[in-house]
Specification:
This protein is mostly helical. It contains ten helices and no strands. The protein is elongated and about 110 Å long. This is Transmembrane channel-like protein.
Length: about 350
């Protein structure tokens, strides 16, 4: 009921005859082509109508928007998780946090029994408070307010340049991928250039933002809000640019689909005319694998989003494997024969 007729019952659920020989190759399946492209994983398996029902519900547009919304919601979940982890890390009992509260509630020694010792301890705590107040005032004193404003403006200009550069780079590689898709012998990098570039931007841009943010010298909590906002703007801008670049490809596929539909009508007309000529028998059915079919833009967009998701997962896995596991093993076993203490530095 949910998926309708089974595989092989109609052209949109059947691998074309020319692709069946390589439809189960790993390289083809890795690119989500072959049998995966015509499976229940993508929209083209279910329906080929623009609207359904008497309300003219635009099902392809709903499929497209739901996929984008899920991807955008996942970005929101990632940003909220980053904010929660940052708040938990800053809420630990560190000496740099809540300095005056620590001095107020933990400085007194309750084992003191001598009045003179108690007076000395009281004077010591008072002096410590005065020194902490002076240090806090010195740290908050602006030596050159114009320099700080200039550095903050410079930091925002650099971050805006990074955001615009990442958007242009994504638009450029998506356009290049449309050219590569028309090539017969495109390499692995040409087929996966978009996913590689977007994954690398998502991996290297946030640390770059954090490095640039040191110029602003904000309070850690304010700096965290700026950092999370910039990361969200990066992810959302990259996704918007990615979809904007795909729109041109979608328009090309819609035009190609109209041409193929016209060719399909004439092909079927010629097939049945040749079969019925000088014969009263029923013409043989045309196999769904031999029917010409145009590109399905919903399936194309779905494949690109799935590729992007899988690429992000692989990059995250490799980053954790190299950045945490392999580094921990190296420090654990090489610390005995190293010139300094690796565990203290890493």
């Amino acid at each position: 009921v949910l998926m309708g007729m089974p595989y092989g019952s109609m052209p949109r659920k059947t691998v074309p005859r020319a692709e069946q020989a390589t439809a189960m190759d790993f390289s083809v399946l890795w690119d989500f082509e072959g049998y995966i492209k015509y499976s229940a994983l993508f929209y083209g398996y279910y329906n080929n109508q623009r609207t359904i029902g008497w309300l003219k519900y635009r099902l392809p547009m709903a499929y497209f928007m739901v996929g984008i919304s899920v991807f955008g919601y996942s970005l929101m979940v990632v940003i909220r998780s980053m904010a929660r982890n940052a708040n938990e890390s800053t809420a630990d009992g560190d000496d740099e946090n809540f300095v005056f509260s620590w001095k107020m509630f933990t400085s007194w020694d309750y084992l003191i029994g001598n009045p003179e010792t108690a007076d000395n301890k009281f004077a010591s705590i008072t002096t410590s408070f005065k020194e902490s107040i002076v240090d806090e005032q010195e740290s908050n004193k602006d030596e050159n307010i114009h320099l700080r404003r200039f550095l903050r403006v410079l930091a925002n200009v650099l971050i805006i340049c990074c955001l615009c550069g990442s958007g242009y780079l994504i638009y450029f590689v998506v356009k290049r991928s449309q050219t590569f898709s028309k090539m017969q012998n495109a390499g692995w990098y040409e087929r996966n250039e978009v996913e590689i570039v977007m994954s690398l931007l998502g991996m290297f841009c946030p640390p770059l933002f954090e490095t640039i943010a040191t110029l602003e010298n904000y309070h850690p909590r304010i700096g965290l809000k700026w950092q999370l906002g910039r990361i969200f703007a990066l992810f959302l801008g990259n996704l918007y640019t990615f979809l904007l670049a795909l729109m041109d490809d979608v328009n090309e596929k819609l035009a190609e689909e109209d041409v193929v539909k016209n060719i399909t009508r004439w092909t079927l007309f010629g097939h049945y005319n040749s079969s019925m000529e000088n014969s009263t028998a029923t013409p043989p059915p045309l196999d769904p694998a031999d029917v010409p079919r145009g590109p399905c833009w919903e399936t194309t967009v779905g494949i690109e989003i799935v590729r992007l998701t899988v690429s992000d997962i692989l990059v995250t896995f490799v980053t954790i494997l190299v950045g945490d596991f392999i580094r921990a093993c190296f420090v654990r076993f090489m610390n005995y024969c190293w010139c300094w203490d690796l565990e203290a530095g890493f």
